[in-house]
Specification:
This protein has 184 residues and is α+β, with helices and mostly antiparallel strands. It is built from 8 helices and 4 strands; from the N terminus they run ββαααβαβαααα. It is globular, with a radius of gyration of 17 Å. Helix 5 runs parallel beside helix 7.
């Protein structure tokens, strides 16, 4: 849960969205052997045990597979800075680089739902009518995030945000707004 303090990826997943549809047959999900014991707190949250990952490949093998799955596609995540920090810390070891554009549904929700202070994955899903299933698993959270993103796309378009560049720019503005809000 703290990538900069040595915590490791134990599971990674992604789903593909094309033409505003989640392609159910195109997903990526892998358990990852972190080469160290999984803290009990982490297991309590995501349910992954040491036994489950003991025969899995290490991140140096799995991360290049994930990059092959994502290619140059736009990556979409909830609280993307958290996920990307884990990935960035392992890029050199894995011999790959994720230079994909990244959209964060948390930041896009802050923009669209500026009246709300709560932008957890669960809360955004509830606001957009997205059913929560298999929560706190990599694939379950990826599917929920994809559905949230699709719901936000319509709202973003209504707000005049129609291109990837505009969405990225809006996300950056939300980062700055949140930094300024922390000062007060």
């Amino acid at each position: 849960l703290r990538p900069s303090q040595g915590d490791e990826i134990v599971s990674i997943a992604g789903v593909r969205i094309v033409n505003r549809r989640i392609l159910s047959g195109e997903s990526f999900t892998r358990l990852v052997n972190p080469k160290r014991p999984i803290p009990k707190l982490a297991t309590h949250i995501h349910g992954i045990t040491n036994t489950q990952v003991q025969d899995s490949s290490p991140i140096q093998v799995v991360l290049p597979q994930f990059k092959a799955f994502t290619g140059n596609a736009v990556l979409v995540a909830h609280n993307a800075a958290f996920d990307m920090k884990f990935i960035q810390l392992k890029e050199t070891e894995a011999g790959i680089e994720f230079d994909n554009p990244v959209l964060d549904v948390l930041l896009l929700s802050v923009y669209i739902h500026d009246h709300s202070k709560d932008h957890t994955l669960d809360t955004i899903a509830e606001r957009l009518g997205v059913e929560l299933s298999d929560r706190h698993s990599a694939l379950g959270d990826a599917l929920i995030t994809a559905q949230i993103f699709l719901g936000l796309m319509d709202l973003l378009e209504e707000a005049g945000i129609r291109t990837l560049g505009q969405a990225l720019e809006t996300s950056e503005k939300m980062v700055e707004v949140r930094k300024q809000q922390e000062v007060f």
